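Methods: holo model generation. Sequences were used as deposited, without trimming of termini or removal of tags, and paired with ligand SMILES retrieved from the corresponding compound records. Each pair was processed once, and we did not select among multiple samples. The sequence and zinc ion SMILES for this entry were:
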Amino acid sequence: MIYQLYPQVAHPYRYELNKDMHIAAAHFIPHEAAGSCANVHGHTYVVNVTVAGDELDESGFLVNFQMLKKLIHGKLDHTLLNDHTDWFDRHDPNRFPTTEVVARTIYETIQRYLDTLPHKPKCLQVFVRETPTSYVIYRPKVGER
Ligand SMILES: Nc1nc2c(c(=O)[nH]1)N=C([C@H](O)[C@H](O)COP(=O)(O)OP(=O)(O)OP(=O)(O)O)CN2
Ligand SMILES: [Zn+2]
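and the model returned the structure below.
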């Protein structure tokens, strides 16, 4: 159970929802600057996703919480992140499985799904905590949301 307060994002929308997920996964950062993190090791990632919009769908949902979980937890939980070559690439630093890239790629995955919905909700923030002392927030630029 996660009951954590996350940084707020200011927005003009009527509805905002947040979905928390715990993801147990391993990774390694394929670069010498990562030091010991270049070796395979594991985390329980704590992820919070913020979605907003003005309209609900025919179910009364902004977006189904279960769909957000399926898209992210369903793909990554109990996996080696580096194996997801559609998300990560050992030859491109913008696609190494760092906390920054994990947060951005979660955003991209969710927004791609939201873009298929007729009422067009927006993902405004993705919070990813990799360790008790390290987290990243990814937010799209104002013109993208
Ligand atoms: N900007 C980033 N720096 C580091 C990342 C990252 O994704 N982005 N990742 C790592 C390692 O993967 C590591 O798992 C996490 O690093 P760190 O916060 O140093 O973990 P510790 O638990 O050892 O932190 P302490 O505060 O020292 O206990 C490294 N850097
Ligand atoms: Zn790590």
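Residues 27, 37, 41, 43, 130 surround zinc ion (ligand 2) (CB under 6 Å).
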